[in-house]
Specification:
Elements: H1 2-14, E1 16-23, H2 29-39, H3 45-57, H4 73-78, E2 85-90, E3 95-100, H5 108-115, E4 120-126, H6 133-144, E5 149-155, H7 164-180, E6 186-190, H8 214-220, E7 234-235, E8 238-240, E9 252-256, E10 261-263, E11 267-271, E12 275-284, E13 287-289, E14 291-293, E15 297-302, E16 313-316, E17 322-333, E18 339-340, E19 344-349, E20 352-365, E21 372-374, E22 378-379, E23 384-397, E24 408-412, E25 419-425
Parallel strand pairs: 1-3, 1-4, 4-5, 5-6
Antiparallel strand pairs: 2-3, 7-16, 8-9, 9-15, 10-14, 11-12, 11-16, 12-13, 12-15, 17-23, 17-25, 18-22, 19-20, 19-24, 20-21, 20-23, 24-25
């Protein structure tokens, strides 16, 4: 029974691919997405008719497929992508959740949102311009977020006469850069999103290319991020105590399993207290089960009455994360207001939110050569840098490379609730851990 349930959980994850598109302004991201939806017959008739009418209103003879994803009025009027557009579509081989992210540098923060749950990132490059700073930025974000698969789509090949040397030079430069960041798999595909070359159907103009089309690669790439194979983690969202005549003594801890598998009879630890107990029952969808796995929402029942509240983390007793008040991490700063040394913030980790202070900002990443600019003092919008944060209460943090769910956090402005930075605990890139300058103790703060 256990084997069947676990294999069922794993097979379901391999049928769904979450992926994000990114690239510089006018590289053709929305057109690529529109072409994917159109040529895979994933567009409803009324949607296509609306796009055709909007295109005619703008004086265009052919439908502008980019309008299938640019949903905001400002996006349609300016011809740019501002917000992250999520689209669901499916083929006979796989289901997809797609995040079309903006290209403007001021909206790079939205790529962090779109790629944070992605298993694959499609980075577009205009064949006429090659690899630019924003291309490097998107590659760095994909590497920081540990996106396991990256596709380099060299777009607008029709505007460079489908020349193989142009594609080869761009692919070589990008691959070397992304590999130095620790990106594990890079696939380069020459395309023309406008003409449809190598998007869904193979191109008749590039017989020198023998690889897959974009859709073929999306359908066949292995989905390697299996949550059930990760360290088991259960952030508590809510304590259930009905205290009714039918359930006078019921006490359960509800939440969504962030990673791994939990079983009845398993010894677990409750963090940050460190108290240990045993799982006596698991309730899922109103029924008792013997086993549950990520990302199911369940209620755990424990053998001992332990003081547990929202924000606590339940994990296997022999495989628990470290508990710390000193968080060393890489952050992508997403707010217009800067993040400065000494700033008071809130840190939101899974279901737990605690007060904290930014003790140090040891470095800021320079995207051109991946060097570290030491001691910048602050990070501004779209900066990527290392931070040291001291929290008022202990947090049970995994390294981000071990768990994208329990190794990530948000830094929040306590005054108005604005999200300041998206953080990833532990080493910055998979290639090599950076040297982090330790922050001096601040005697004014007692935590």
């Amino acid at each position: 029974m256990t084997t069947h349930l676990e294999s069922g959980a794993q097979s379901s994850t391999t049928t769904l691919l979450r992926f994000a598109t990114a690239g510089s302004v006018d590289d053709g991201k929305s057109t690529l997405v529109g072409r994917l939806l159109h040529d895979s017959k994933s567009v409803l008739t009324d949607q296509l008719e609306a796009v055709e009418q909007a295109s005619l209103n703008r004086g265009q003879e052919a439908p502008d497929l980019a309008l299938l994803t640019d949903g905001l009025r400002a996006e349609r009027e300016q011809g740019i992508t501002i917000d992250v557009a999520y689209r669901y579509f499916a083929t006979t081989r796989r289901r997809f959740i797609l995040a079309d992210t903006p290209g403007h540098v001021q909206y790079t923060r939205n790529m962090v949102t779109g790629a944070s749950t992605a298993e694959l990132a499609v980075v577009l490059v205009d064949a006429r311009n090659g690899v630019v700073e924003q291309t490097r930025r998107h590659a760095a974000v994909a590497a920081l977020l540990r996106v396991p698969h990256v596709v380099l789509a060299v777009n607008k090949m029709d505007l460079v006469n489908y020349a193989e040397p142009v594609f080869a030079a761009i692919a070589e430069e990008f691959t070397a850069y992304a590999a130095s960041l620790g990106v594990p798999e890079i696939t380069a595909i020459p395309i023309s999103a406008l003409a449809g070359d190598n998007v869904v159907e193979p191109s008749a103009h590039m017989d020198w290319y023998g690889g897959p089309t974009v859709l073929e690669h999306l359908e066949t790439v292995p989905v390697s991020h299996d949550l059930t194979a990760c360290h088991a983690r259960f952030p508590v969202q809510y304590v259930i105590r009905p205290q009714s005549a039918e359930l006078p003594d019921y006490r359960g801890y509800a939440g969504q399993i962030a990673a791994g598998v939990f079983r009845v009879g398993e010894s677990v630890a409750v963090l940050p207290s460190g108290r240990t107990t045993t799982i006596t029952g698991i309730d899922a969808l109103g029924e008792s089960v013997d086993i549950a796995w990520a990302p199911q929402s369940v209620t755990l029942r424990l053998a001992d009455d332990i003081d547990i509240s929202r924000g606590d983390l339940i994990a296997p007793a022999d495989d628990s994360p470290a508990v710390t008040q000193d968080v060393e991490a890489t952050v992508c700063h997403v707010a217009d207001q800067p993040l400065s040394v000494g700033q008071r913030v809130l840190i939101k980790h899974t279901t737990r939110t605690v007060k904290a202070i930014v003790k140090d900002i040891p470095s800021r990443l320079t995207l051109d050569d991946l060097s570290q600019h030491p001691a910048p003092g602050q990070l501004v919008a779209n900066d990527i840098g290392r931070v040291v944060v001291r929290t008022a209460e202990p947090l049970a943090l995994d390294a981000y490379e071990d768990s994208r769910r329990t190794g990530s956090f948000l830094l929040i402005d306590p005054a108005d609730g604005t999200t300041l930075s998206a953080g990833m605990a532990g080493a910055a890139f998979a290639a090599a851990a950076e040297a982090v300058v330790a922050a001096d103790d601040d005697a004014e703060w007692d935590f």
